[in-house]
Amino acid sequence: xxxxxxxxxxxxxxxxxxxxxxxLLADFSGEIIAIGLYGSMATRxxxxxxxxxxxxxxxxxxxxxxxxxxxxxxxxxxxxxTEQQFLEGAKKVDDSWAIRTGxxxxxxxxxxxxxxxxxxxxxxxxxxxxxxxxxxxIFMIWEPYETMGKIRGNMEMENFHYIxxxxxxxxxxxxxxxxxxxxxxxxxxxxxxxxxxxADSIPExxxxxxxxxxTGKLEDTKAVYACCEALWEGLNIWYEQLGIQYIEREMPQFx
Length: 255
Fold this sequence. Notes:
This protein has 255 residues and is α+β, with helices and mostly antiparallel strands. It is 50% helix and 13% strand. It has 2 domains: 10-125, Beta Polymerase, domain 2 (2-Layer Sandwich); 129-242, Four Helix Bundle (Hemerythrin (Met), subunit A), CATH 1.20.120. The chain has a 5-stranded mixed sheet. α10 runs antiparallel to α11.
């Protein structure tokens, strides 16, 4: 078995990110507005194999670039942005809102004299319902509709190896929609499906397909396909109940 990735204790991680913070502040004196941890280290849910993820907020003239590297036994990701870029990202509404919002909501400040991270934490909660609806409408066309077409097409062509892949994609896309509509953000990708199931509003058919994926019961192609069809039906009914119309009733005019 290959040695890397290596396990490290929380204390070892803390010592490493403290030294990185000290080095950044020394190398870019006066050009760093804030530094903070996000991800599992910020939420106190890190395993021995978790990496270290850090926000570094810089002034407009700072030359620091983003870095992601392995320096055994650690893996470190430095996400670098100006204050304006960071705050704009916190306000953004897109199909990945439920996946990425945690990086703004769950931050452990390491250097934040202006309380920037506290201010940023308020912004994802201010998203407008009309923006949510517009995002869900276009995402339905981009992803779930296309995925269901692939599932049906591959089933028809008897390319059964694709069906579990398509099923996972459909569940992942639905989980993103559930998070956005319910305005909940997922703590980690590893728990996305379980946390989506706990949302107040979810489409029929989501739970049975999630259950198959989480338990690895994907060998029965016909059963998996039937679950995909059930979720697709439930997803469309859910949209109707929410009043989100994604199907054109008249041919759009291109001119």
